[in-house]
Design a protein that fits this description.
Layout: H1 5-11, E1 18-22, H2 34-39, E2 43-47, H3 51-59, E3 65-68, E4 77-83, H4 96-99, H5 105-108, E5 111-118, E6 133-136, H6 142-147, E7 158-164, H7 175-184, E8 187-197, E9 216-225, H8 235-249, H9 252-264, H10 272-279
Parallel strand pairs: 1-2, 1-6, 2-3, 6-7
Antiparallel strand pairs: 4-5, 7-9, 8-9
Helix pairs in contact: 8-9, 9-10
Length: 288
């Protein structure tokens, strides 16, 4: 699929796309937003409170990236549980009984240090402008971040977050709780790029403890602005949604749906079905 800069130029947004990555640990990278940084003037603000992970991020950051040492939350002090596997570090306490159900998670979530930290809420951060695209992988703090980020998220176009089917931490919100919250923010589910399944003890398949069976553990889900009544979505918000869905997820059907609304408003070139699908090489040349 042809994801070049020409598409961005054709959409003509009035601002650069602002991306926030909450939990930018390089051991668990998110590649979905990389094409957006490559082909548009978007800017990424990554948050990573663990010093070693932050140093690794800063060592390779580009001109369109900024990394900050804050732990996002509600702006209050909390206990950070630093786990043996840094990607499992959380503001929540791991539940040893639940973790023991699954291979390796009792070791991965072993707390090796507890540290009092002052969290930052999105709304109190002057370093970042209003956010267009939020990615979160923060082991249970997603709800706290959203609830204390209303101003920065007022015009959010898309959110990718990790949702839990089988919580491994005490008081971790489930997928149902997160879905209810996001729908109250005017967003609906769009995609599930990653689904993580895990084996339940004691069965081991092919001598591999990580061999997936049927049990759903977590998933990466993408929520977008509720597009079912497109006329109510502001033009710039609709353009940001189009850019994110095109470059990050190649959601051709929803992109085209939004392009048609933008064309109806005369905010982009007319006949997007022809030029967009042609640019993606999804139309036979003899139809052009």
């Amino acid at each position: 699929m042809n994801l070049n800069t020409a598409f961005h130029d054709r959409i003509q947004p009035t601002k650069k796309t602002i991306i926030v990555d909450a939990g930018a640990n390089p051991l668990d990278p998110t590649d979905h937003y990389r094409p957006l940084l490559t082909h548009t003037p978007a800017h990424l603000f990554g948050f990573e409170p663990q010093a070693e992970a932050l140093m690794a991020l800063k060592a390779r950051q580009g001109n369109q990236e900024s990394y900050l040492p804050y732990l996002l939350g509600d702006g209050q002090p909390h206990t950070l549980r630093i786990c043996r596997a840094s990607v499992m570090t959380s503001l929540l306490e791991p539940d040893p009984i639940r973790c023991a159900l699954f291979h390796r998670f009792d070791q991965l979530t072993e707390v090796i240090e507890r540290r009092i930290v002052l969290t930052k809420s999105l709304d109190e951060l002057s370093e970042i402008p209003p956010i267009d695209y939020l990615k979160m992988n923060v082991c249970g703090a997603e709800k706290m971040i959203l609830v204390h980020g209303h101003q920065k998220l007022a015009d959010i176009a898309a959110i990718q977050l990790e949702v839990s089917f089988t919580p491994l931490y005490y008081f971790q919100p489930t997928i149902g709780e997160m879905d209810t919250l996001l729908r109250s923010m005017g967003m609906i589910p769009h995609a599930m790029p990653v689904i993580k399944k895990w084996g339940i003890k004691p069965l081991v398949i092919h001598d591999c403890q990580e061999w997936p069976m049927h049990q759903l553990l977590v998933a990466e889900m993408v929520y977008v602005v509720d597009y079912r009544d497109p006329g109510r979505i502001p033009t710039e918000l609709l353009k940001q949604m189009v850019l994110i869905l095109h470059y990050c997820y190649q959601s051709v059907d929803l992109v085209l749906f939004c392009l048609q609304e933008l064309a109806r408003r005369k905010a982009i070139d007319s006949d997007p079905e022809r030029w967009y699908l042609e640019s993606l090489m999804l139309l036979p040349q003899d139809t052009v």
